[in-house]
Design a protein that fits this description.
Structural class: alpha+beta
Largest sheet: 7 strands, mixed
Radius of gyration: 17 Å
CATH class: Mainly Beta
Number of domains: 1
Distance between the termini: 33 Å
Shape: globular
Strand order of the largest sheet: 1-2-8-5-10-4-3
Helix content: 25-40%
Protein name: DUF1826 domain-containing protein
Number of strands: 10
Pfam family, one: DUF1826
Organism: SAR324 cluster bacterium
CATH architecture: Sandwich
Length: 204
């Protein structure tokens, strides 16, 4: 099965032992989020680093501190956002069965072509803008993908395209049996806010 929609966040913790390519926990956008991110997206930023489960909030705060305008950091919702990223990061530490992971947070995305990530598993949360576009297996021409054909050849049925929703927590597989996905055109051509989590060696 390509995708499983979890009805609680804890079900994502054992993703590594599941057979799904993609697991999604759907969430509602909190109050005040839209106004906060409209302000944040006026700034172009791309930051990365490592964080520890026990100090995730402080680690994320430190990673972002120099790149986010002070007036944005003074917004009360900034702390809501930091704590949410820390909570999701703690979950991914459980998935990785490790106390440390790698994190990337940014406002520009550039993965235009459908592709499979060369990682065991990856977690994404799109906080603003259109979420990651992905293809169910039956909608993809894997031969076209493997031979370097453009997106128009890879996708069998454009109507089958799926998108990860804002604030949804999504974990998917990479590698040989990974999820075929891309940055949607809307996010290629405009700002968004994405958090990406990987294993602790990703930025080594």
């Amino acid at each position: 099965m390509d995708v499983f929609f979890a009805d609680n966040l804890d079900l994502l913790s054992d993703f590594a032992d599941q057979s799904h390519r993609l697991v999604i926990f759907q969430r509602e956008e909190p109050d005040d989020a839209n106004m906060f991110f409209q302000s944040l997206m006026k700034t172009t930023f791309s930051v990365s680093g490592k964080l520890n489960k026990a100090t995730a909030v402080d680690n994320i705060r430190s990673i972002l501190e120099k790149d986010i305008p002070s007036e944005v950091q003074r917004n009360p919702f900034y702390e809501v956002w930091l704590n949410d990223m820390a909570d999701v990061s703690s979950l991914f530490c459980n998935v990785e069965k490790d106390d440390a992971i790698s994190i990337w947070i940014g406002s520009k995305r550039g993965c235009k072509r459908y592709h499979v990530d060369i990682v065991p598993q990856r977690l994404l949360v799109t906080y603003a803008g259109l979420g990651t576009e992905w293809l169910p297996d039956e909608a993809a021409d894997w031969k076209a993908y493997s031979t370097g054909e453009p997106n128009e050849k890879i996708i069998r049925d454009p109507a089958a395209r799926q998108y990860i929703g804002q604030w949804d927590v999504a974990i998917f597989r990479g590698g040989q049996h990974g999820l075929l996905h891309r940055t949607p055109d809307e996010a290629l051509n405009g700002p968004s806010v994405l958090m990406r989590l990987d294993n602790k060696t990703f930025y080594s």
